[in-house]
Every structure is written in structure tokens, then in C-alpha cells.
Amino acid sequence: MIDHHTLPRFFHPDSGNRPVKPRRFELLMVIVSLVAALHLLPATIVFAEPERLTVLFTNDMHSHLSPHHEIARNGTVRDVGGYARLAGAIEQERKRTDGNTLLVDAGDFTQGTLYHTVLPEQALELRLMGAMGYDVANFGNHDFDFRPSGAAGMLRAARAKAQVLPQLVISNLRFSDSDPGDDTLKQVFRDYPVRDYTVIERNGLHIGIFGLLGKDAAEDASFARPVTFSDPVEAARKTVKILKEREKVDLVICLSHSGTSPDKAHSEDEKLATAAPGIDVIVSGHTHTILQLPIKAGKTLIVSAGSYGTWLGVLDLKVGKNRKIEVTGYHLRKIDASVPEDRNIARTIDGFRSLVEERYLSHFGYRFDQVLAFQPFNGQTIEETYAKPGETGLGNLVTDAYRCAVEEAEGHRRHIDTAVDVLGCIRSSLFKGDIRVSDVFQTASLGPVQYGYCGNTIVVIYLTGSDLKNLLEVHTSIAPSKKDALLSLSGIRFSYNPNRVLFDRVTSIEIEGADNRYRLIEKERLYSVAINSYLASLIDLIDTKSFGLLTITPRDKAGNPVGKKDENKLTVTRNGEPLREWVALAEYLSSFPKKNGIATIPERYAKPEGRITTEASWNPIALLAGGNWITATAAMLIVAAVILVVLLMRQVVLKSRR
Question: Domain check: are 545 and 602 in the same one?
């Protein structure tokens, strides 16, 4: 039974289901209640103000603590970057946003300058990043260049020498269950700690941040073994699910050391955004891409700030109800002389410079800012080389230096047939003006700790003429899609037709003899090849990259096959000291004739001189002449296909006549 007394006074059954006119006081109370409810509603649900956040980001810093050289638009050389200026720009952005900032890095924060030479004992990069207020950083492939033991030393040194450090994240790194070579690093990861992801609260927002190493970067991380890296897409999907469902974050940021490319087929982070939906922002590293405008892939925003601290990325966001993200501003801020330095950071870096001279350079008899030579021209920059790949004057200079150093290393001159390097190992250009020790090291800065000190050593291997041709096919058939594999050469010149079948595009090869005359290569003859230790360790990868079509067997002088275990006996030494590639380059520059009291680099290194020649042709003879079994097989398949088409057309004609 309904109790009529419980119904509202203005709706009563005795009124014939018609509203009863309420008293004025009761009506007033209803209106007041409604107004109060509407007053509370905007603050709680309907008109909630979005939260603001500015993401400051860098990537591929490569130990560039001090400013580095760059060619300005007017052709002059200027200094850009440097952690002291970068810290000044970061502080300005924090003031602009009232501290509502997040500072992150997408990896490869080490390896590239003299500062990284003391990495395992000093961890200068991580210590400075902590002092500058980095919240989170990811690992890049080069952060493992000192092998698992070196990475472990870096993390231990950072913990011991700094109170504030960035949180390190990487979600697809996997330690070996069977090889003890990474056991120490595994324990140090726990102690630091390094996590799959982290959640940071900033300005009322819960921000989930995780790190990834991409497939191409994982291939380049050969020194990380036995550490491996799982599929980045699967790791991303798993981590995004955790961040959204378990951590209930408002924003998902991926620090991805994978990279982007104008060729969508090779743009890993664009593929990642599509295959792992739910990522709001990808800070992209590895390819050193300068994105003046973000890439939008689905609902994911991809940003990247070049390399070497030349730019600070600034991304302004609004995060509203239901995680609705709005971009309110984006730009890359140039770190140049217009940015004031942070004096404390600058003083710290000065102290680090003295430490590097004491712990590393003194062993080789050099000083940080010692002038070695003068260069009267601006050569092609690394960026220009990647944009327009091919032979470079700098590549010729570097390989000539290696070849010359090896020929004179033993105290008596011996002939070396050729020296080979790749673009990925030439890390910096040399610019017009004085060339200092620090500049030379930046040009040839890679290499793990070997024989007590870091830096790639030079080894001499022997290849048959056939194997040497296969090595040159890397330039013609692998490098077009992986530009850091572009070759530089000394003592050799070759031509190729880019229209020929893959892995059989080289059409002629000439080798310079001890009498400085060039002669055609002989297939079965052994040729001496000077190459850095890093490239020598990657020769096996050529077989994989060519789908097993290119095989190369390194040998010793007697023609016996050699492998990684033989590196010690292949390493070039001088007075018992292994010859490092940066030292070879420094000595070569110092050996040039002097002008005004200083060695001067010859003008012939300002541009290519015809060591690599492209001869594009669709002439059938040019496409087939001198071809190997790959070309022969392709030709037979084409002929078979043509015959099959003719037979099918004949059958169609016969049927139509019937």
C-alpha cells in the first residue's frame, strides 16, 4: 500500500493526478536547491578544466657535453649545443610553464665525444642529466657499447657519485638465462633501479612513461650480448595495457629508440604507433631526425629533436576529461649562443674536461684542445651525406689515414691494398678552421674498452677478390635502405650499375698497387684490408642482410679463415700499443705539409674524387655482362616468365578462334 503522506506535497492523489500548487516557501526551497546543484556541477563533472603539461625532450645526445661545430646558412662555422646552454633553456621553459614540465630523453645519451672515455668509472652523462633535472631516460644501442660490464659500471658510478639521477626505463630488454655474461648488469638494474616503465605525477596528471629499443637499433647493439631485445611492438602493447588498466594513467609516453624515416616502410616509430594503439606521445630517437612538425600516426603524436643537444624539443599539451589530448604548442628550440649558460653546469663540465685529460688522453700523449691541423674548407656534413649518399671527401680522408697508419705501424713500410669504413662509424664532420684533438675524436669516437682504453682498434684481414666484391655490394644493395652502411674506401675504386640485380651491381674494381698504379681485381688473389674492429665483428651480418646471397670469409695472410677469437692477432700494434682509429686520423692530419707553421689538410679532401662511380644503364649488355649466379638466375627466371606469358597468350588466342 502506498503511503500518501510520503509523496511530495505538490503531487497528491486527492488532486486527481494534477499538481497541487505548492506554498511559496517550498517553491523557493526547490529553486535554491536546483541553483546549488548547478553551482556545484561544473566544478565536479561537466566543465572540468583540462590540465596543462609541457614535455621537454632530447634524444641521441651522444656525450656532447660541450658545444660542437655547425655550418650556419651564411657558410660560417658556429658552436651549438652544450649541456650548460641546454640547462639554461630548460630552466627558461620551466619558468614559462610555472614548473608544469616533464623532461625526458629517448636514448643514446652516451658515446660520441672524449667525455665518454671515462664512462664506466665516472658516468659523467647520467650525473649531469640528474643535475639538469631529467625525469626519465631510455637506453639506446650505443649505451651498451662498453658491453654489459661497462653499462653496469656506468650505473654503479652514477649511483655512487650523484644524489639525483633520471629514472631509466626500457621494457623490451631481456637478460640471458644461460650466459652469465650479463649477470652483473642484471643485478645493477635492480639496484639502480632500471624499470620497464614509471608513473610520474605532474600538475594533477598521472603520466605513464616506458622505453623501447627498436629492431634496427637492436641489430646495431652487438656489444650488448648476451643481452637481447624482444619485439618492441609486443612489449609496447603489454606495457600500454598495464599503464591504462592497472596504473590508470592519464597520459602514455613512449621513449622509443627506433626512429622515423621518410620511407614509411622503414619508419619504425610510425609502425609502432599503428601496431600498438594507446600511446599518446612517442619521443623518437636513433635516426637523429629533426621533426620541426610532429608526425601524427593514428591518435599518436611522434616528436624528435635531432641529435647532440642541438635542439630542445618543447611540446605543450592539455589533457582533458576522458584523456582527451590537445596540442597547444610545439617547437624545437635551437641551443646556440643566444641561450644563457647555466654557470654551475658549465663549471662542472670544465672539471670533467680535466678529468678526461688525466685519465685518458695523457696515455696517448694528447691534450683536449690541442691543435693538430688547419682545414681551409668546409667539407660535406654528415647530415648532407645521409641526404645525398655517396662518396665523400671526409670518408676518403679517414680511410687514407687508416691505410697510411697501418702501412707505417711496424716501423717499416708495408703495402696495404685497401682500407674500408662505413658512414655509421664516421660520427662527425671536420669544419673550416683549426682541427683539435677533441674534433678528431668525435669523428672516430666509437669503440668499446679494449686493451685498457676505449676506442676502435684497426685490424688487418685478408679477402679474396670475390669476397672483396661481395663487400662492395654492401654499398650498392644494402646501404640504399640502411644508409649508415655506405662505404668509404682507400686504395680501391669501383663502378656499379644501380639498375642491375641486387647483390650483383658492381661492374668493375681496381686496386692500387705498391707502385701506385691501379689494376683490375683478381678473383682468387688475397688482398689486405685495414678495417676497424667494430666492422670486422659485423662481417657475419652481411650474410643475414643479403638473405644469404653474400658470403665473406675473413682470412689471415696465409689464407686461413679467421673469426672473432682471432682479433688479438689481427690487431695492428705499434710498440706494443694497439693502433686506434682516432689516433691514426690524428697522426695523419699532423703529417701534412705545414703552412704558417701548422699542418694543412689538402683541398683534394674537400669533395669526392671518383673512388666510387655510378653508371646507371638499362642496356641489356650492361645489365648482364660479367654477372654472377644471382644475375644468371634472375635472367633465367625472366626468360621463363616471358615464355610462360607467350604460351598463355597463345592458348587464349586458340580458344578464342575455336
Answer: yes
Q: Are 551 and 543 in contact (CB under 8 A)?
A: yes
Could you give the angle at which helices 124-132 and 83-96 cross, rounded to 10 degrees?
Answer: 20
144 and 102, same structural domain?
A: yes
Provide the pLDDT for residue 20: 40
- The pLDDT value recorded for residue 29 is 55
Mark whether 591 and 512 lie in a shared domain.
yes
Phi-psi region of 89 (alpha: psi -120 to 50; beta: other; left: phi over 0): alpha
**Considering the entire predicted model, what is its pTM?**
0.88
Burial of residue 620 (CB within 10 Å: 0-12, 13-18, 19+) is exposed
The CATH number of the domain holding residue 221 is 3.60.21.10
Helices (H), 319-381: 343-356, 362-364
Task: Let me know the angle formed at the C-alpha of 160 by 159 and 163, rounded to the nearest 5 degrees.
Answer: 65
Does some domain include residue 542?
yes
- The CATH number for 466's domain is 3.90.780.10
621-652 pLDDT, tens digit each? 999 998 888 888 887 888 888 888 888 888 88
Q: Angle of helix 147-161 relative to helix 124-132, nearest 10 degrees?
A: 40
pLDDT in tens, 257-286: 999 999 899 999 999 999 999 999 999 999
Domain contains 357 = no
> Has residue 363 been placed in a domain?
no
Range of the structural domain that residue 171 is part of? 51-343
φ and ψ of 294, to 5 deg: -65, 155
Q: How many domains does the chain have?
A: 4
Residue keyed to cell 659500471: 153
What are the φ and ψ backbone dihedral angles of 293, each rounded to 5 degrees? -130, 140
Domain-located, residue 652? yes
pLDDT tier at 384, thresholds 50, 70, 90 = confident
Listed residue (448, 440, 442) closest to 588, CA to CA = 440
pLDDT (0 to 100) of residue 75: 83
